[in-house]
Amino acid sequence: MPLARPSWESRLGRRLKLRDLHILATVVRWGSMAKAAAQLSMSQPAVSESVANLEAALRVRLLDRGARGVAPTIYARALLDRVDVVFDELGRAVEAIEYLSDPDAGEVRVAAGDTFASGLLPAAIDRLHRAHPRIAVRVVQASLETLELRELRERRVDLALARVPRDFAHDDLDVEILFEDPHRVVVGEGSPWARRRKVALGDLAGEPWLFAANQVIRDLIAEAFRLQGLEAPPESVTASSILLRNHLLATGRFVTILPDSVLRYNGERWGMKALPIDLGVAPRCAAAVTLRNRTLAPVGEVFLEHVRAASRGMQRR
């Protein structure tokens, strides 16, 4: 008959301390007891004692010691994977308490790419700041076209704004579609194409094209031309900066594709005009993405409400 497993209370409840877990995480991050001690403003023997206490409580070795420092064992990795979630949830709890004591203050962290930084995100932040000027927004500039959503999954941000296919879904994510955001073929107002009432995609094959520096846009342009039985145009200029691409587009000498939301917020300012061309590809959608089973702090919910409000203008379009 197998032995009964000792209860949490008798084995770990009184011996496992958050401080020790934090110290272990710091040691693993720096790969050295001495470096971790310096970061924590502790003595090295105190750090070693903390790790030893954890090893005694869990009855496994957590660190392999070598000439080059320390490395986590498989047991430490299994522990720290879950500790990250514990500390994150505790952080959410503290934020919730702070919000309950002062609902007009707090901090929300958002991951967004150039597309949102050029349109919806400034509009949402402006609305939020007018209503809650003491709520701080920390924006992590991220490339989200590949939809890895690394910053969100690593819990470095509270939510991400991304352009996704309508059927985009993952077991660990909650996806809220805000509006359809199709790409438009765009030129500067000074372009001779801007004055044409009828333009076909094939007419633009020989024009200098601006490309965003990601494979998703390349594939989208290639697919649109393929559907017309044409080869994709060469990349005259490729740049990750949407600001640089907008400057060049304003000269009237280039052609590019931009999400409708970017055109909506920047068309008049930058002198852009969408051409009457249907690319024929399935549009992506603007979406707010959060981690499933992770509590969004109240201040995050407030920010999300302003994102939804700013999105309603695009929904009507």
Notable features of this structure?
single chain; 317 residues; Arc Repressor Mutant, subunit A; D-Maltodextrin-Binding Protein, domain 2
Describe this structure in words.
By secondary structure, the chain is α/β, with parallel strands linked by helices. It has 3 domains: 8-84, Winged helix-like DNA-binding domain superfamily/Winged helix DNA-binding domain (Arc Repressor Mutant, subunit A); 105-180 and 285-316, Periplasmic binding protein-like II (D-Maltodextrin-Binding Protein, domain 2, 3-Layer(aba) Sandwich), CATH 3.40.190; 183-281, 3-Layer(aba) Sandwich (D-Maltodextrin-Binding Protein, domain 2), CATH 3.40.190.290. The protein is 44% helix and 22% strand. The chain has helices spanning 8-13, 18-30, 33-40, 44-58, 74-101, 114-117, 120-131, 150-153, 215-227, 242-249, 260-270, 298-316, and strands at 63-66, 69-72, 105-112, 134-141, 159-164, 173-181, 183-188, 209-212, 235-239, 255-259, 272-274, 284-291. The strands form 4 sheets. The protein has a 5-stranded mixed β-sheet. The protein is elongated, with a radius of gyration of 26 Å. The model has no long low-confidence stretch (mean pLDDT 86).
- Per CATH, the superfamily of the largest domain is Periplasmic binding protein-like II
**How many H/I helices?**
12
Which class of secondary structure composition applies to the elements? alpha/beta
CATH class of the largest domain: Alpha Beta
Strand order of the largest sheet: 4-3-5-12-6
Biggest sheet, in brief? 5 strands, mixed
Q: Tell me the count of domains.
A: 3
